[in-house]
Design brief:
Cytochrome-c3 Hydrogenase, chain B, 14 strands, single chain, four-stranded antiparallel beta sheet, about 20% strand, about 45% helix, alpha+beta, three-stranded antiparallel beta sheet, 16 helices
């Protein structure tokens, strides 16, 4: 038996690696170790007042804090049977779009593009392709502007609240979005062919899981259009080698993220994004994990166009800035959000005193964990006898990078019986 240990994954958020077990000339097993320091957010929220919880959950991640905050808020509002206004829904969607713009541009321009050009990192890439890197940083800043506007600050913002916001954007701030989004769309269009040129790698998958709306949702949905709550069909299990639990959909490996969103929800795409989806549909329909990079590029166009649409609508209609009153009652709620990396779940049970009695969080990277292992299995199987080759090791890393994992989000401790 031979055990091949990858180096720590680079150009991903958090710390992880993989063990590939080869026995009798065949790949026997792959273990993806997500070993970022364990998080205790479910435990930390127990007994806390509901109003404080979204601000705490925003601390889970610096990249996708607003997704966590809004998923938390949505779960709380559903537990209390509170319906917010369309204005609040639009502003939350705008914030999520800003987060998606920032996250996707970071991933594509600075973390994946070096692979396409054979460079070790974005610093070396900038020496030869400065305009590409500059475009990426500029679009990232635009996404950060939107997220800062809705979330209150670029990292761990606390402006989004149950029932509304602490502060609402001004007309002048919204006009910045309306004025600039089209320029950034043109920049993204220039790089689509770059990611379309990548040869397919990783595993092919059959099952997609998404929310029933594009970024917010009431239920989860799979390929046949059936709607369900996560606990009805998704099974989680703890692993002895990883701090992240692993998920299956009715026993099957599945994927969440940009590629599943495009495959199942293309009807929601904005005009330019829809045009390029149709143009690259054959590549996306291959369902190779690596096509998630191309899907992110198309979705980046969608997010830019949609943020412009929402800003224009809010400017036309005006912002009232009215929050919805919240009255705690005993209840249970699940919040579903499409974070940049895929479906995010926050689930609470709350007492009549407004205190959290039960908390569960499932993140996109934890949902994709099983597919990560299958993808490395396929790559290792195709490269048996060459596992010490540096090019093979780079391909294994590129395979993990295609998921755009957020490892820090994924690691949660579970109660073990003594």
């Amino acid at each position: 038996m031979v055990r091949v240990e990858t180096r720590t994954f680079t150009r991903v958020e958090g710390s992880g690696s993989a063990d590939i077990i080869i026995e009798d000339g065949k790949v026997k097993e792959v273990k993806v170790r997500l070993v970022e320091g364990p998080r205790f957010f479910e435990l930390l929220t127990l007994g806390r007042d509901y109003y404080d919880v979204p601000d705490m959950e925003a601390r889970i991640c610096a990249i996708c804090y607003l997704s966590h905050s809004i998923a938390s808020i949505t779960a709380i509002e559903r537990a209390f049977e509170v319906e917010v206004t369309e204005e609040i829904e639009l502003l939350r969607e705008l914030g999520l779009l800003g987060e998606l713009i920032e996250s996707h541009s970071l991933h594509l321009y600075l973390l994946v593009s070096p692979d396409v050009f054979g460079q070790p990192d974005a610093i070396n890439l900038a020496k030869k392709h400065w305009d590409l890197v500059k475009d990426g940083v500029t679009i990232m800043n635009f996404g950060n502007y939107i997220r800062n506007l809705i979330g209150g600050r670029e990292i761990h913002g606390i402006n989004a609240k149950p029932g509304g916001f602490g502060r609402y954007p001004s007309e002048e701030e919204l006009r910045v979005i309306e004025k600039n989004f089209k320029e950034y769309v043109r920049n993204v269009v220039k790089i689509l062919e770059l990611f379309a040129s990548q040869r397919p790698f990783g595993a092919r998958f059959d099952v997609n899981i998404v929310t029933d709306k594009y970024l917010l949702g009431d239920k989860l949905m799979t390929d046949d259009g059936s709607l369900f709550d996560y606990h009805e069909c998704i099974e989680e299990k703890a692993l002895p080698y990883s701090f992240a639990k692993q998920s299956r959909y009715k026993g099957k490996i599945f994927m969440v993220g940009s590629l599943p969103r495009l495959l199942l929800k293309s009807k929601y795409l904005t005009p330019t994004a829809a045009e390029f989806f149709e143009g690259y549909k054959d590549l996306l329909m291959e369902r190779y994990v690596s096509r998630n990079n191309l899907a992110q590029a198309i979705e980046l166009i969608y997010a830019l166009e949609k943020s412009g649409e929402i800003a224009e609508r809010l400017l036309d209609e005006g912002i009232s800035g009215n929050n919805v009153p919240i009255r705690p009652v005993e209840g249970e709620g699940i919040g579903y959000v499409e974070a940049p990396r895929g479906v995010l779940v926050h689930h609470y049970r709350i007492g009549e005193d407004g205190k959290i009695k039960y908390s569960n969080i499932i993140t996109p990277t934890a949902m994709n964990h099983a597919l990560m292992e299958l993808s490395l299995y396929e790559e290792a199987k195709n490269n048996l006898g060459r596992m010490e080759d540096e090019r093979v090791m780079r391909r294994l890393e590129e395979t993990i990078r295609a998921f755009d994992p957020c490892i820090s989000c994924s690691v949660h401790m579970v109660k073990m019986r003594s």
